[in-house]
Design goal:
Blueprint: H1 3-6, E1 14-16, E2 36-37, H2 39-49, H3 53-65, E3 78-83, E4 88-92, H4 107-117, E5 123-128, H5 134-140, E6 150-153, E7 158-163, H6 164-167, E8 195-196, H7 198-205, H8 211-226, E9 236-242, E10 247-251, H9 264-274, E11 283-291, H10 299-309, E12 314-321
Parallel strand pairs: 5-6, 11-12
Antiparallel strand pairs: 1-7, 2-4, 3-4, 3-5, 6-7, 8-12, 9-10, 9-11
Helix pairs in contact: 4-9
The structure holds zinc ion.
């Protein structure tokens, strides 16, 4: 079946692309934007415009795209999703100059971190400015709502709506590697049990008087506990501290296909963009909580990325132990 035939066959409703503009400035006159529209505001927009949910999402795509940061391609991608809570979330693509392309964040991935950041447990509908790439179709296979979410995109004024099974049939997913009847999937609460090593504990204690560091440690540890790492069992969380002492933190998120995974540094940067971090070079320090001796570790990659995007930043690594895994240094030779 051709792509054109797809547009008019069994793929569901066709939605007309609108051009709604909503004032998303947090403060009038500022250049700060919010990437989440609260449920009551969504209801107000629906009633005042007379639009359907799909029309509202499609109408917001262009506004989302305008927030993208792609210095390599200059190709702006926007994603807009409606969550089960009634809130709308934005996602945009991020690229990092002077780094390999695989460090880029796709708009659909950004959106999932945004939903996690706001505690959303399920996405009902997603509208994207471009056809989702294979990488993102794979990444969305991790969602607990992968079988129910509808995804809209298309050229011109008409968008078509699809299920993920239509976009990525016979896909490799969590069920191929995990007992999914017993594993919380992406967007469902994760409860990784972690304890700091004594070395890490001493490092935190040594900075007891540094309130910003303590907050960054608390957030990085919380993100490590919430990390989605069912394949490696190596949860991790990372917090960045800016020159203004603001803290932004994100979790490590895995994919069954491994490569679409998001590093905790990427997730923390996404949260920084959502919460108006002015520029990556404003990052002063980065705090990483990850498993000591784990099969997956982020320290070295984080150092390479930081050397380009925030060369002045220092990296503090706080190794942790998981009761699920016997750490290598406890093993007999
Ligand atoms: Zn993509």
């Amino acid at each position: 079946m051709s792509a054109e035939a797809d547009q008019t066959s069994s793929v569901g409703e066709i939605v007309t692309r609108g051009s709604l503009t909503v004032d998303l400035s947090r403060d009038s006159g500022s250049d700060k934007h919010t990437f989440c529209i609260e449920a009551d505001e969504v209801q107000r927009l629906l009633s005042s415009s007379g639009q359907s949910e799909d029309e509202l999402l499609c109408g917001l795509i262009q506004q989302a795209s305008s927030l993208a940061r792609p210095p390599i391609s200059s190709f702006l991608v926007g994603a807009v999703a409606l969550g089960v809570s009634g809130r709308i979330f934005f996602g945009v693509n991020l690229e990092f100059a002077r780094l390999p392309l695989y460090n880029s964040v796709h708009a659909e991935q950004f959106l999932v971190v945004n939903a996690l950041h706001h505690g959303e447990r399920e996405l009902r509908k997603l509208a994207v400015s471009e056809a989702p790439c294979g990488h993102c179709r794979q990444f969305y296979s991790e969602l607990s709502c992968a079988d129910s979410i509808r995804i809209s995109f298309g050229k011109g004024q008409k968008l078509s709506s699809y299920t993920l099974a239509e976009l990525l049939p016979q896909r490799f997913g969590p069920g191929d590697l995990l007992d999914i009847s017993n594993t919380p999937l992406l967007l469902q609460p994760q409860q990784n049990s972690l304890q700091l090593t004594e070395e890490a504990h001493d490092r935190v204690e040594a900075r007891a008087g540094d309130a910003t560091f303590q907050e960054a440690f608390r957030q990085a540890a919380a993100q490590a506990r919430a990390s989605y790492a069912p394949y490696s069992q190596c949860p991790a969380g990372l917090a960045v501290i800016t020159a203004k002492q603001d803290v932004y933190a994100g979790p490590y998120i895995e994919s069954a296909a491994f490569n679409p995974s998001l590093s905790p540094l990427q997730a923390a940067i996404i949260v920084g963009v959502i919460d108006s971090m002015p520029c990556y070079t404003h990052v002063n320090e980065v705090v990483l909580v990850e498993l000591e001796g784990g099969a997956v570790q982020h320290e070295l990659t984080a150092r390479v990325v930081l050397a380009q995007i925030a060369p002045e930043a220092t990296l503090t690594v706080l190794p942790a132990l998981s009761p699920k895994k016997k750490p290598p240094h406890h093993e007999m030779p």
